[in-house]
Amino acid sequence: MTFRQSGRLDTSGVSGGGRGGRGGRGVAIGGGVGGIVVVVIALVLGVDPAQLGLTGRGFDEQGQNSSSAEQFQTHIDQCDLQQANSDTICRIVATTESLEDVWTAELPAQVGMNWVQPHTNIFTGRINTGCGAGSSDVGPFYCPADQEVYIDPAFFDDVLVRRLGGSPEGAAQMYVVAHEFGHHLQTMLGDIRRSQQDPRGPSSGAVRVELQADCYAGLWAHYATSTPAPGGQQPLLESLTEQDVDAIIQTAEAIGDDHIQKSGGAPVDPGSWTHGSSEMRRQWFVTGYQQGSVSACDTFSAQL
Ligand SMILES: [Zn+2]
């Protein structure tokens, strides 16, 4: 997936290490937020990071410090579209903007609702969120309570590629960002709570929520190279090749619960699944990609 080489890149929707002083923020977790999921919805794991051997990855005890947040922020501020084709952090920024363009067009057209862009935080170590303390150990995640996306860019090489066998291509990273934005749409539509109501098993609410986020990522890919940027400008993404789709499918399969269990040396135990098998994740991404339709992503009515 290639971004066009020139034009504006709005970096205001992404920040390095949270938008300052979250530790003291008075988010009413668990109180008066009826039905809002307060646990984070993580990309690869529903539960215990030890399952993947992710703990102790070398972050210091304090986790995120202010200097890494500043470094991320400086990096983000310097991103342009050209760099988004080679630099992971700039690619995340540009992908959030492409997602905004697509959902701003498609959500009113398909669902009759206006898109509200979620804020994205780039961090490493630990970060305070509306869902409590978040950690890089669980991989990229979405917090329904503050409706923000959290991504440690080191995840892509350290875990996704090296440990799980996902693709190193940029398209794989973009799919991950699009999947997290899928959870934001689920929060807007009220479906995200189904994850906690039925948290485990191959046809559980949790798995249906995850597969739907994969389908929504596919929907974004369907429109990403044809949706104009604001002001009628050329789409931010100018190409999406068969190789890109293969990279995404390889990655969707790598983060299937059965594959994660096998690669961690554990037996495959469908009863513990929270995200769905490799085959399910591949299938639902492809459904969204081929059909480009929110209603085609109704994993809750589907026979799983
Ligand atoms: Zn997810």
Automatic annotation (TrEMBL):
Q: Where is this region: Disordered?
A: 1-23
Q: What spans are recorded as compositionally biased (Gly residues)?
A: 14-23
Which is a Pfam family this sequence falls into?
Answer: Zn_peptidase
**What membrane topology is given?**
Single-pass membrane protein
The entry's keywords? Membrane, Transmembrane, Transmembrane helix
Q: Which residues cross the membrane?
A: 27-47
Q: What is its main location?
A: membrane
Give the signal peptide, or none.
none
Does the keyword Cytoplasm feature in the UniProt annotation?
A: no
Q: Which domain of life is it from?
A: Bacteria
Q: Where in the cell is it found?
A: Membrane
What name does this protein carry?
Answer: Neutral zinc metallopeptidase
User: Can you name the source organism?
Assistant: Dietzia aurantiaca
- What does UniProt list as this organism's lineage? Bacteria, Bacillati, Actinomycetota, Actinomycetes, Mycobacteriales
